Amino acid sequence: MKTVYGLFIDTGSAEEMFWDRGVWATSEACEAYINQVMGHVTGIRIGELKINDAFPAAADEEDGMITCSLCGIDYNEADVNVLDYEEPVCVNCEPEYRQSLDMA
Ligand SMILES: [Zn+2]
After folding, report:
1. Positive or negative CA dihedral for 50, 53, 59, 62?
2. CA of 83 to the centre of ligand 1 (A)
3. How far is the centre of ligand 1, averaged over its atoms, from the C-alpha of 69 (Å)?
4. 103 membership: H or E segment, kind and range
5. Which of 51, 54, 74, 102 would bridge 65 by S-S if both were Cys, CB 3.0 to 4.6 A apart?
6. Segment 5-30, tens digit of pLDDT
7. How far is the CA of 103 from the centre of ligand 1 (A)?
8. Backbone angles phi and psi of 22, in degrees to 5
9. Paired strand residues for 7
10. Model-level pTM?
11. What is the C-alpha to C-alpha distance for residues 24 and 31, in angstroms, rounded to an integer?
12. Dihedral, CA atoms, 45, 50, 52, 54, nearest 10 degrees?
């Protein structure tokens, strides 16, 4: 098991986690994401999660590289789109991937 950090929002009656946003290896990285991407959303907080080691993290903080879910190649964070899709998609795969989504 390892500890990661995810986004939670208080809906009033319950607290829900944004699983589709992924998880982060550090609370600092999670906080940076909130500030950059979700700064306009109120009621967001960082929550600690215990997951098994096989769980795919949104970003691998250890080496700063992200593996594209389509071609399996490691890229720098800047070259992988982790926000718009359920899985990380690199810049090389993105055009084709976007096309396949449009056709679906
Ligand atoms: Zn790719």
Report:
1. positive
2. 15
3. 7
4. helix 94-103
5. 74
6. 999 988 888 888 887 788 888 999 88
7. 19
8. 85, -175
9. 46
10. 0.46
11. 9
12. 20
